[in-house]
Q: What sequence folds into this?
C-alpha cells in the first residue's frame, strides 16, 4: 500500500510549483483589440505576422459597431476593468477621450515618428505638448463620378474648380441628373459632409488653441456655397446620409457624382454592381484657379490605449504594428480603402493598383495624391456636431439663411463650449 | 433548581432552532439582495452622488453642488427634449392603449375568425429585434421610394418626408413604436378579458344589454386594474424612449425627435459629462415617479 510521507507531499508541492512557474513563464500575454468591420478584416490579415514576430503575445480581435465601441470603451475606462488593450476611436471624437485623462501617454514612442504623419493627422493626437494614441487612417475626400454620363453630356474632366463643378452640375440638372449628394437633413452624421468642404477650404471652426474663430467669413461663405448646391443651383441630391432613397437614385442613374472619401467605392460597388467600369475618381475641386490644391476629410480614426491596460508594452507593440508600420498600413487600404495615416505606406505599389469598378483607375493616383489634406481642429466635437447639425437642419428646413445659420453656430459654440 | 436549569437550556435550544428556521428563508433570498445591492442600489446611490460632481469618467470627480441641476434648468435643449417626450408620451400612450384594447376586445369576441392567426400576427413584431425593425422601417419611410410614400402616391395623397421633416419625424417614431408594442399590450388586455367571469356578461345580456353596453358598462369597468397597469407601464416606456428615435433619426431633424433619454445619452456618451448625465437621469426618474403617482391617483381613485 502506498505510504504518503511528509517528504513525498513536500516533493509533490515543489514539483507542482516549479511546473506552474515554468508554465507561467511560457504563458502568452493576451491582448484585446476592438475595431469594426473593415478594420477587423485588416487586423485579422496581419495578426499572424504580428504573433510570429512577437511569440509571447496573443491578440484577440473583437468586431463591434463603431458607436457601440466608443460607448463601451468609455464605460470600461471609467470602470478601470473590462476594456480592450487597444481600441479604434473616431478621430473627431478623440479629443473627448483625451480629456477624460484615461488614455495612455504615447509621447515617448511617437515623438521620433512625427515626420511620418501628415500634420493634419498628427494634430489629432497632440494635446498640451504630449501625444495620446497612434494615428491610424485618414479619410481625404475625392470626387467620384459617372464617366459615361459626363461624356454623354460633353462635360470635360477633371473639374478643376468648384466653379467648373457648378457649371457641369447645371448641364446635368437639365437632364434631371444630380452631380453630387448633400446630407440634408443633416443631423450629426451630416456634419462630417460639411466639414469636407470647410476643411478643404481651410475654413477652421476652432483655432489652434481651441477658441472659436469669430466672424468667420470663410466658413460662412462655404456654408452658403454648400446650401446653394442644393437649393439655389439644385444640382445636389439631398437626403439623409446613407438613406435608401440616395442609393435608389444612384441605381437609377439620377446621381452622377459622389463627393466623399475613397471608401465610397465599396459602397457603390455593393449598391450598384451593374455600374462597374462606369465610375471614375478625380481630385477634390479647388476653390479657385490659383487656390491651393487641397482637400478635406470625413474624419479618420485613431488607435487608443487605455491607461488601465495591464499589458502596456504588448498593447503598445500591437498599436505601433498596425498604426506605424508600412506593411500593415497598406493592408487597411486593401481591406477598406482607408488611406494610411503612416506616410511611408503611401509609397506602396498597392495604392497604385487599378480598380475594376473604376475602369482600372487607381483612386490614390488619380484623386488623392494630387491633393494635400488641410488641418482641421476638432474641439468638444460631440457637442459641436449637435449644434452644427441642428443649425444645418434649420437652414435646409427654410427657417434660416446660411449666413444666419453660421452666425448662430458661432454664438452657440462660444456660449455652450465656452471657447 | 436542576429542573429550572434544564428548562432554561431547553428553552434556549428551542429559541436557537426557531431563529435558525426564521433565518433560512433570508439565506435563500440573500443572493438576490446581494445582487440587488451590487448592481442596482449601489449604482443608484453612486449616480446620485456623481450628480453633484463634474465627473468625466476617469479623473477624480470634483464636488460642484447643484451646478448640474441648475444647468439642466437653464438648458433650452432639455426643455425641448421634455416637450418632445411629453408630446410623444401622450400620443403614444393614448393610441397604443386604445388600439391594444380594441384589438384584445376583437380577439375576445365570438364574431372574429382566424383569431389565433391574428394574435400571432400582432405579437410577431414584439419578437423582432430593433435593428431589423429599424432597417425595415427605414425602407418603409424612405422619402419618395419607400413603401408608405408609394402607397400614398397611388392613393393620390400627399407624401411627406417621414424622417426628414421636423413636423413629421416624431410620428414616424410613434408608428414604429406602436407597431412593436401593440401585440404585447393586446396580450395583456386579452388576459385581463379572459379573467372576467363570463356569467357576469351573460347575466347582462340576459337582462337585455346590447353588446356595446356590455362592453362599456361591464367589461371596461372590470378591466380597470389592467388598464391602469398598461397605462403606467406604457408611460414609463414612453418617458424612456430612446432606441427607436436614436436608430431612425438620432434625435433630428433639428432636435424634433430629441427625447430626454437621447439628451441623457448625448451628455454621458458623446460629451462624456457623466456627472451631468447622472443629474439628468435623476430628473428623469423624478418625472417617471410623478407620472406614475398621478396616473394611479387619477385612475385608481375613480376605480375605488
A:
Amino acid at each position: 500500500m502506498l505510504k504518503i510521507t511528509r517528504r513525498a507531499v513536500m516533493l509533490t508541492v515543489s514539483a507542482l510549483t516549479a511546473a506552474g512557474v515554468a508554465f507561467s513563464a511560457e504563458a502568452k500575454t493576451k491582448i484585446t483589440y476592438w475595431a469594426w468591420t473593415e478594420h477587423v478584416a485588416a487586423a485579422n490579415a496581419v495578426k499572424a505576422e504580428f504573433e510570429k514576430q512577437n511569440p509571447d503575445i496573443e491578440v484577440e480581435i473583437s468586431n463591434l459597431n463603431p458607436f457601440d465601441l466608443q460607448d463601451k470603451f468609455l464605460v470600461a475606462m471609467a470602470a478601470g476593468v473590462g476594456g480592450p488593450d487597444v481600441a479604434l476611436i473616431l478621430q473627431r471624437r478623440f479629443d473627448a477621450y483625451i480629456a477624460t485623462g484615461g488614455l495612455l501617454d504615447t509621447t515617448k514612442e511617437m515623438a521620433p515618428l512625427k515626420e511620418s504623419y501628415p500634420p493634419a493627422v498628427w494634430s489629432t493626437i497632440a494635446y498640451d505638448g504630449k501625444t495620446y494614441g497612434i494615428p491610424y487612417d485618414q479619410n481625404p475626400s475625392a470626387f467620384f463620378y459617372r464617366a459615361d454620363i459626363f461624356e454623354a453630356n460633353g462635360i470635360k474632366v477633371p473639374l478643376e474648380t468648384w466653379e467648373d463643378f457648378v457649371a457641369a452640375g447645371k448641364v446635368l440638372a437639365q437632364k434631371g441628373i444630380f452631380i453630387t449628394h448633400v446630407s440634408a437633413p443633416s443631423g450629426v452624421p451630416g456634419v462630417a459632409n460639411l466639414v469636407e468642404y470647410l476643411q478643404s477650404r481651410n475654413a477652421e471652426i476652432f483655432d489652434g488653441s481651441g477658441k472659436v474663430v469669430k466672424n468667420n467669413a470663410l466658413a460662412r461663405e462655404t456654408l452658403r456655397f454648400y446650401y446653394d448646391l442644393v437649393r439655389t443651383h439644385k444640382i445636389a441630391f439631398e437626403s439623409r446620409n446613407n438613406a435608401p432613397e440616395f442609393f435608389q437614385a444612384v441605381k437609377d442613374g439620377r446621381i452622377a457624382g459622389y463627393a466623399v472619401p475613397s471608401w465610397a467605392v465599396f459602397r457603390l460597388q455593393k449598391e450598384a454592381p451593374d455600374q462597374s467600369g462606369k465610375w471614375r475618381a478625380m481630385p477634390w475641386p479647388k476653390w479657385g484657379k490659383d487656390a491651393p490644391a487641397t482637400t478635406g476629410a470625413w474624419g479618420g480614426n485613431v488607435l487608443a490605449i487605455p491607461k488601465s491596460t495591464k499589458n502596456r508594452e504588448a498593447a503598445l507593440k500591437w498599436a505601433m504594428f498596425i498604426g506605424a508600420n508600412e506593411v500593415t498600413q497598406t493592408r487597411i487600404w486593401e481591406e477598406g480603402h482607408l488611406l494610411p495615416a503612416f506616410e511611408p505606406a503611401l509609397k506602396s505599389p498597392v495604392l497604385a493598383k487599378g480598380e475594376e469598378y473604376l475602369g482600372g483607375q487607381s483612386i490614390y493616383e488619380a484623386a488623392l495624391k494630387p491633393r494635400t489634406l488641410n488641418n482641421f481642429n476638432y474641439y468638444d466635437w460631440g457637442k459641436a456636431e449637435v449644434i452644427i447639425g441642428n443649425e444645418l437642419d434649420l437652414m435646409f428646413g427654410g427657417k434660416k439663411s446660411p449666413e444666419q445659420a453660421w452666425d448662430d453656430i458661432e454664438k452657440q459654440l462660444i456660449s455652450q463650449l465656452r471657447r | 433548581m436542576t429542573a429550572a436549569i434544564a428548562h432554561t437550556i431547553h428553552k434556549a435550544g428551542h429559541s436557537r432552532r426557531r431563529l435558525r428556521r426564521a433565518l433560512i428563508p433570508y439565506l435563500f433570498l440573500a443572493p438576490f439582495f446581494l445582487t440587488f445591492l451590487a448592481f442596482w442600489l449601489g449604482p443608484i446611490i453612486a449616480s446620485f452622488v456623481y450628480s453633484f460632481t463634474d465627473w468625466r469618467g476617469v479623473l477624480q470627480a470634483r464636488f460642484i453642488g447643484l451646478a448640474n441641476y441648475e444647468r439642466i434648468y437653464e438648458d433650452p435643449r432639455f426643455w425641448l427634449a421634455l416637450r418632445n417626450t411629453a408630446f410623444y408620451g401622450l400620443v403614444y400612450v393614448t393610441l397604443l392603449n386604445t388600439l391594444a384594447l380594441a384589438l384584445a376586445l376583437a380577439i375576445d369576441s365570438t364574431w372574429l375568425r382566424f383569431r389565433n392567426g391574428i394574435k400571432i400576427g400582432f405579437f410577431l413584431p414584439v419578437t423582432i429585434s430593433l435593428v431589423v425593425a429599424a432597417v425595415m422601417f427605414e425602407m418603409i419611410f424612405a422619402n419618395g421610394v419607400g413603401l408608405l410614400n408609394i402607397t400614398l402616391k397611388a392613393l393620390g395623397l400627399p407624401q411627406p418626408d417621414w424622417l426628414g421633416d421636423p413636423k413629421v419625424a416624431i410620428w414616424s417614431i410613434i408608428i414604429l413604436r406602436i407597431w412593436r408594442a401593440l401585440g404585447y399590450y393586446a396580450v395583456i388586455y386579452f388576459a385581463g378579458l379572459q379573467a372576467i367571469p363570463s356569467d357576469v356578461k351573460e347575466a347582462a345580456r340576459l337582462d337585455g344589454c346590447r353588446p356595446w353596453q356590455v362592453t362599456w358598462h361591464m367589461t371596461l369597468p372590470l378591466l380597470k386594474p389592467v388598464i391602469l397597469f398598461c397605462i403606467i407601464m406604457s408611460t414609463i416606456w414612453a418617458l424612456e424612449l430612446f432606441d427607436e428615435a436614436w436608430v431612425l433619426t438620432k434625435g433630428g431633424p433639428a432636435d424634433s425627435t430629441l427625447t430626454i433619454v437621447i439628451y441623457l445619452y448625448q451628455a454621458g456618451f458623446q460629451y462624456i459629462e457623466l456627472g451631468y448625465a447622472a443629474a439628468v437621469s435623476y430628473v428623469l426618474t423624478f418625472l417617471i415617479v410623478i407620472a406614475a403617482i398621478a396616473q394611479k391617483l387619477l385612475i385608481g381613485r375613480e376605480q375605488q
Q: What stands out?
A: Chain B has two domains: 1-50, 72-303. Chain B touches chain A through 27 residues (CB under 8 Å). Residues 1-50 of chain B form one domain. Residues 2-50 of chain B form the longest helix (49 residues).
